[in-house]
């Protein structure tokens, strides 16, 4: 039993299942568990929550829901750390995505997702967490990321988990635990991402075809998984930014036997993809209703009443109409004044370079006629036509001591004596 456990890396019920296939007396599950604890192969620490506290759920057929996530733990020889973009079919636990990327950016995640769409077909739903590569739900300004756009253009319902609830995507999280224990913990440093990708591809094939799964009654994931039929397998609609860099899809090793390679030079190596134009497509953004109830998006105002202040409202807009929804319920539909491209900025007004030419006693404007100003003896000439008179008797003019604080004047009587000193004789 110890040789079986060490060679295959399985525990508990899987040990009993292997002993059942080999024949002979089979110990009880508790006995197997005690033996594994005695030799340090199982952590005896109890769970924080009981198994009965979790609500189990599962889709009824394959290709109905995919769970996607990102996991780290691949340390490279150059000092960096790579990530793994993973995806698991909810019904069969079949691993559909396992791509190693240096940085888990939105573009890298979409490339791995697009490759899986070409290889297995388009699922009905995708369940992810609220990470930035998947959604802009908690980002600054909101809007639609590239992953949301791929789901919308291919008719995929993108579902998001609640914040801080990793058990919702428990199937893909459990795949991360298996990947970490059986592969990543054995290698401390990888030479490059290509080496890690080759090792993960081998583990993925073994996980799908040769490793029994406890939640499937010790069946293999490949036995319950089936990709989209060939007649329904349409090319996915991808943004033009991905069509130039997406790699050719790899043939599935565990779903259907690979056909013999064609010797025809004109046969394309990858299926064609429908390229979507940016002009005329609808967009979907989420905004919060301001306190005034008047929401402004791209210069167009939408009245929603102050009673809805602070509520998130979803705007589905194109160049013809705009739909406003709250919690999936449509509030109103108004004509759209949005354009595919933002309007050009108005040119800045340049400051006039016309300057007046000044001579003593004469002011000449460019394009005007010279005007002689009257001269007042004893006064400095002003070049302004309306300021040639002196301002000696102007009561509103400021003194040259106006920047200093005023001195407080003591009260006096009619003789000019201070009131505070009248009784002092």
UniProtKB/TrEMBL annotation:
Biased composition (Polar residues): 260-270
Pfam family, one: rve
Gene3D superfamilies: Ribonuclease H-like superfamily/Ribonuclease H
Compositionally biased tracts (Basic residues): 377-425
Residues of the Integrase catalytic domain: 58-229
Residue ranges, annotated region (Disordered): 251-271, 335-425
PROSITE patterns: INTEGRASE
Entries under PANTHER family matching the protein: INTEGRASE PROTEIN, TRANSPOSASE RV3428C-RELATED
Name of the protein described by the UniProt record: DDE-type integrase/transposase/recombinase
Phylogenetic lineage: Bacteria, Bacillati, Actinomycetota, Actinomycetes, Micromonosporales
